[in-house]
Design a protein that fits this description.
elongated; mainly alpha; 51% helix; 2 strands; 3% strand; two-stranded antiparallel sheet
Length: 154
């Protein structure tokens, strides 16, 4: 039976039928796995943001909001992504985004087990990963801000 409120027990089924815990050791290892997947999630996000950030001023402008008032901004830009060539770099960026999104959704589903330990291990893992891998990304040495996407799945 699935819990619909937070509980603090060691009896847990996490993501798959075969991932069950019935002892403190199995439960602790599952919490450690959730913590490590959360760290990996933040590491991959940092890698994606730093490795694939735009290198030219024109490309960087595409990441920033338009300076035109919303009523005058075109819905489709003439210089949009439709004319860009497909490249190995774009494919790698899309693949990394997909892997990171999959890990993020798996973490969300793990939290939806409503186990308090899983919730805390994921939140602590994401916080630790942000601290180790992403806090320094906000402002680089040249004071160029890295624009973060506010979408929860990115």
């Amino acid at each position: 039976m699935m819990h619909m409120t937070m509980y603090w027990g060691t009896d847990l089924t996490l993501l798959f039928d075969w991932w069950t815990t019935d002892s403190w050791l199995a439960y602790s290892l599952s919490l450690l796995a959730c913590f490590l997947f959360s760290l990996i999630y933040q590491f991959l996000e940092s890698l994606r943001l730093l490795r694939f950030k735009p290198t030219s001023a024109a490309a960087a402008a595409a990441y920033l909001p338009s300076q035109q008032p919303p009523s005058e901004a075109p819905l489709l830009s003439k210089s949009g992504g439709g004319g860009r060539k497909h490249s190995l770099r774009r494919l790698a960026h899309a693949a990394l985004f997909g892997v990171n999104a999959a890990i993020g959704y798996a973490l969300m589903l793990a939290v939806m087990s409503f186990n308090g330990g899983v919730f805390l291990s994921v939140v602590l893992g994401i916080s630790a990963g942000y601290y180790f891998f992403r806090c320094g990304d906000l402002v680089s040495e040249s004071n160029d801000a890295v624009v973060e996407n506010s979408c929860a799945c990115s």
